[in-house]
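Curious: why this fold?
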Amino acid sequence: MDHRNNEVCSLCQNPLTAFGSKVAKDGVICRDCAKKASPFLTDEDIKRRSIARMKNHLEYRERNLKKLANFRPSKEVDGKYRLCVEEKRNRFLFSKRNNWDAENPDIFYFRQMKDIRIEEVLYPESTDDYDVYLVIKLSSSQIREIRIRTNEFAAYKKDTPEYAKALATAKEFREVLSAYMSKEEN
């Protein structure tokens, strides 16, 4: 069912624009509402969600923003994304910025992690350029997977220092988070 003929956002009722709106299972979400969604929620995730579920997701994002005010990382690992761990409260986040209010990075709990792996993905239409991803499977009603590309800019050939750095960053993230995941399981 195509909902693009709607003239207003199914969430906020503001007029839709030609660009940036996202199609949900039973409606259309405007660019402004779509920007409030988690960066880990893909377009495919949105297409499978009802408007009621997207409304719930945006409420979750508002609660997350309030939690950020009290987030105090005890450990940080830099990369294209910064991994911030708050050991005292058993939680973590990935952020591109220091200004969390502007980004609203999702806070996750160690107990939500189910699997952590590294994927080396051949860049489309290339025979030897790769992207490196850290992929974390979660048990969360809002986000099922965190997928972070660790290479800084472009895809790289495997024998370059840039590729080695991207792979090392992914491994460091995995090592840090795996240690906390193991603690939560005990």
